[in-house]
Amino acid sequence: xxxxxxxxxxxxxxxxxxxxxxxxEIDAIFIExxxxxxVECWGDDVPHGTVTDFHRAVAAREDETVGFAWIEWPDxxxxxxxxxxxxxxxxxxxxxxxxxxxPPFDGKRMIFGGFEVVVDLENTKGE
Length: 127
Fold this sequence. Notes:
- This protein is an alpha+beta fold.
- It has a single domain, classed as Alpha-Beta Plaits.
- It has helices spanning 16-32, 54-57, 76-89, and strands spanning 3-12, 37-42, 64-73, 111-116.
């Protein structure tokens, strides 16, 4: 069954297009390494909670928007193998060089993790 790697980040709202451009470049690396799909989302309806929420999770400021993304891998073994290869390439692939291609967000406030899919429903009616 597929394996999902999820991410939540705070992105300066003024850098929306830079975020999209950066994501397209970096996400291509995951596809090159066997990811089935990469989805990047821009917060549109992300409410502030009373106890916890996405904003607090990444210490988002008023001038930032919460981003949510996931990478869909065929399985965890593929993800582990290919992420190790990607980490090896970080020193040589200019797309991954934070000096020449800096991310438009503070990576220290990113939260991420790998998730086993336990329920996967699909609308087969085409609606």
